[in-house]
## 1
Amino acid sequence: MESLRNKISGRNIVAILIFLFLLTAPFYMSSFRTNMISKYMCYALVAIGIDMIWGYTGILSLGHGVYFGLGAYCMAMYLKLESSGTGLPDFMTWSGLTELPLFWEPFKSPVISMILVIAVPTILALVIGYLTFLNRIKGVYFSILSQALAAAMATLLIGMQKYLGGSNGLTNFSTIFGKSVYLPAVKSAMYYITLAFLIGAFVICSILVKKRVGKVLVAIRDGENRTRFMGYNPAVYKVFVYCLSAVLAGIAGALYVPQVGIISPNDVNISPSIEMVIWVAIGGKGTLIGPIIGALVTNFGKSIISENFPELWSYFIGFMFIFVILLLPGGIVSLKDVPRRIINKINLYKEKKMDNEKNKKVLAKRQHN
Amino acid sequence: MNISVNTPVIEIKNASITFGNFKAVKNVTTSIGKNEIRFFIGPNGAGKTTLLDAICGKNKLSEGNILYNDGNREYSLPKIKEHKIVELGIGRKFQAPSVFSGITIQENMELAVAGSKGLFSSIKGNITKDERERIDDALNFVGLYDMKNEYPTKLSHGQKQWLEISMICVLKPKVMLLDEPVAGMGRRETEKTAELLRIIKNDCSIIVVEHDMKFVKDVSTSVTVLHEGSILCEGSIDDIQNNQQVIDVYLGRGGDKNVKN
């Protein structure tokens, strides 16, 4: 128990250090870097959600880009309308629309838009989750299904040239809640709002994981059937955690758009969805702080490397992923265990060697006799 | 074939189970009374586990019915969802020990004991004082109280089985379904398990699938021999051991190691 407590508090210290760094970063980093970190915090928010569903519940979703995209598009539609003033959004005029499509209407109101940012991903996750988990679709079948969802979503968006900007996506935003998005004050406000959501999500998920619901999720991961025969209905819990992760991804998407200035079908497709899972794997799944570290470190690495060697990035992330899977299954957060593991390995090797020598001696004796 | 049955707790009526074209269980009728320890024995593929699965709702019946009487009401089990069946008081232990290794022994017990298994009460997530006491009792009962803050990975095979049994006990079930509870256990562990079952049966009916004949002799109050999906013979262990048919299809061909003692 003692060692367990230590482990948990050790993780909390790491969490506090990271959050302190994020809190103070705008004071000593250029606004370019700060903006980058803000973007990575959005990714970290997605990663926390994926950790809840994958790390704790054992459901590998390869389609969280969809929920990220839904949140992002809801936000982008609001921003676009606000930036266009009384006129139509620019791409609609180019494609010959003369009237605002009906489904754009709600996004005229900032309040309704914010509600939709949360509601749309939740409802889709609820429907998909209900249909799949209630029908006991699981494991690799669910992963494939979720991936197909990402592909379908991207294709759908690309096809909606007139209504959602097609493959160009939505961009050219100028104001948010009446303020220019280029104002430094707005930028730093966005930064801290993102950080607040990240910390909030981390705290809420940490509490959930400690409550019985978290234990049920782990139980579902370790033995779904057994959980069912203990009287729990795993489908309900799976739908819950799926919706939770979808909401986090949706909020992340909504925070991402005003800071990055564009959302396009490329950001909701299969490969960004898989990248999200990789952040969690690299950081360390099932730890909550690991995914945050994973998202920050991986993306920071991505920027640094692609600034210097633009072609190398994809090899690098592939290599990192393989490295983590093979040698560091616990991700970055398990780095502190590495010395102990090496010592154990050495001891094991020594014991084996001694055993071998003993056996040899015994054999030699036998032969002698 | 005279089993003294007081009010039956479980009544299996003409139950058949088919998988595709294969009839795994054919027209089985039997009933299990209060405080009874019933063993299902028989060669591999006789349909023992399939029948257990049908009682707890994992397998669907193709014909027949299974009735459950909890003392107040009678339920038709095939119409009820698995997790509801558990709530009605039927606990199931699977063949392989399947405690949850990602959470501590205490947390395993807390999951089992929780009065309401719905999402919202899990999010609130506190167990009552009474439930805490029941956990302590159940852990003391199987002798794992001192290890309650460890992870189950530290337990031996036998201890895992006991933990699982205590996870069922803590629910205070009316019926306990155990699939090969002593498989892989040493003699001493088996004896302890037998001891536990004898205590448990005071508040509960137990159905056990098992191959270990010594264990069957030790604890059974009645035995049902299944063969190729149907009941071959039913009665006390002595009846069974003297039944020529049973000796021919099961006992005689090495289905057991210690029968002739």
## 2
Amino acid sequence: MWTEAGSCAPESFVRPRGKSRRLTHPVNFPGSVPPAKRPDRQAMIAAQGKNTVSQQGLALRRSDVPLLGVYALAFGLLHWAAQPWGGAGFFSLWYPAAGLRFAVLWQRGARLTPWLMASELCVHWIIGAAPLTGPDVLPEAIGALRPALAYGLAVAGVRWLTSRGAGALTMLPMPLGIAALAGPVIAALFIIPLALLRPDLPGTGIHLSLVISLTGFAVGDMLGVLVVAPPLLWFSGSSRLPRDGILPRPGALISDGAILVACLLLTMALWRAGLGLQPIPSVLAGAWIGLRHGRIAAWFAILAEVALFLPYTAGPVGDATRLELHLGIAAVVIATWLAGSFTDAQTAARAALDKRNRLLFQAERLKTLRAMSVAVIHEISQPLSTLAIEASHLKERTGDLPADIAESAALVDRKARTLSELVRRLRRFGSRDADEPSPLPVAMLLQTVRQMLTAELHEQNCRLQITPVTPDLTVMAQEIELTQALVNLARNAITASADREVRISAAGAGGEVHIAVANRVAPEAPLDGSGMGVGLIIARTIVEAHGGVLTRKDEPGLVRFILTLPLSGAEA
Amino acid sequence: MNAANIAVLDDDEDLGLTVARLLVRNGLAACAFTAPEQVLEALPACSIACVVSDIQMGEMDGFAFADALRARDPAVALVFMTAWPTTAHAVDAVRRHGGLDYLEKPIDEARLLAAVTEGLGWSARQRRIAETTRAFTRREREVFDLLVLGHSNKEIAERLSISPRTVEDHRAAIVAKTRANGLAQLVALSRGETN
């Protein structure tokens, strides 16, 4: 029920929006975007999620109906299961239903808020927690609607803040942790105006029982959210787990376990010494475990603490003691969870930095390579000038000599000319000069692409089949950029080709030209190659800058990219 | 050597000689140099009309050489060639240093020949203009320049703040010095055209 198609994964939803939209226009993403390239896919998910949200708003989708049914059932059960931890002024100091509510809102988005409110109210009516008749109908109903509304506001608020800017607190997965704390706090604060409005409660202003009620509510909800929501979100796949999976390494397990046991023993010792149940040792243990091993370890530590203490607090202890103990447990749980989130955020930030460093390194290498090729072109062009002039002279003077000499001279001259032409083209490609759009015959573009790839084709033992193009196909384009786009596509195709052949064809239709770059792939071959997908992104950016689109139209066993550009003079 | 009125300047001796031979084959008189100083030294002896110069050379690059050359003889035509073409250089070569063309290596022969031929013609015209106006005083030169632009005596007098009478005197001196008979011929002279 958690992983239906079309659901947008929240953690990947928040981040890539701003960036990917700047790079590529969401509207230009057709359904045929390559599934293998991660950035494109994320951008697509982001774009889709955005579109559906804006189109449908708060409306209920078909996939939500069974979810709401299951939600109501599970909510009722968890609500009922929380009774042993109740007390005067608060319903329960351990409220797992809040975790379920938070997980659903975080995974499906705050748009479900009204529906969860309605479903919770129904549950309250059915199990008799809220009366259906009498003078208390309205206040009790409002009380039942309050928490879901507060959670919805917390989730929406944190999402909004995260989308606005990057800071230490918006680094994934910190938003989840903050929202998990903000929900219970906002819900508890909502009690104040409601309590002031109720005529049956004695006195106005902040009464002592109100403070207890607020605290009890917040503590119960926080415990419920932090214990129940993380595994639900992990299993629904919407919260990304760290790379190494859910199972901790044996070494980490032993050391964390030892720390936990040591701190619990310390707690016991303090208790025996008559100091009461002090949360400090467990707070330290939890913070240490979270900081060292991230959220997963933190959650298991939380689970261990809760499993140890909740059975005890469910027993016959006084309300005041229960509240005090649960405050301590809440402090432990919050510190542990935030420490774990912070560590995971740091890990994610480091990974992002590493990736950027690799890209930078690659860019640096490309720059060096470019400088080197410019130097090589210069070194070649100097002697080539001499060679070309002398070869042409030889050819002229040997025209009336025996045929084999004349032919040799003509051949040398021809080759020198070809080489000169190649050097000029290469130089134009490598130069930094502004590249003005000009009408370019598609046939010439493809010819340049072939020249640029000659060495690579030879090295990879690959053939490039260019279907003859009618000479009247002309596009208005920046030659260097468009050549770069085609070279990138062809280069990807060469790398991925299963039968060592790449086919390029071009055809005009209705004021547009479609240039297709295709290669056969083995059906089970992995789709992502050795590159980082940068080439494709660059190609797409260039094509879109030329008012065209780059689409992928595969057939079984065939990968084909189609570059669609307006023909020049088509509008005239 | 004296007959060579085209200098090919490139620090790559082979290329310089090749280009010079190419020009010679096409009926032009050319000779190769490998250093800018050699060309500047040879300037007084040979009547060089056109220099085909590389841009990236050792201590003195093509542009510095162009400035030195212009300072010595403003009537020499310049054609640049380079293995490192950039738009900025191309613009500089033509605008600031008075190059007639900016050739990319490997060199396009037809374009080189066209540029050199144009350069020779330009240089010859410049020399004839210099020849014509050499005998003029400064004032006479000013009057001459305005005259060939089609201004009347009265307009010239106003522009130069002198009396029309003085303009007439200058005009008589100009005609006497150039031995031209009529304004049309003066205009032709100002353009370096042969009579």
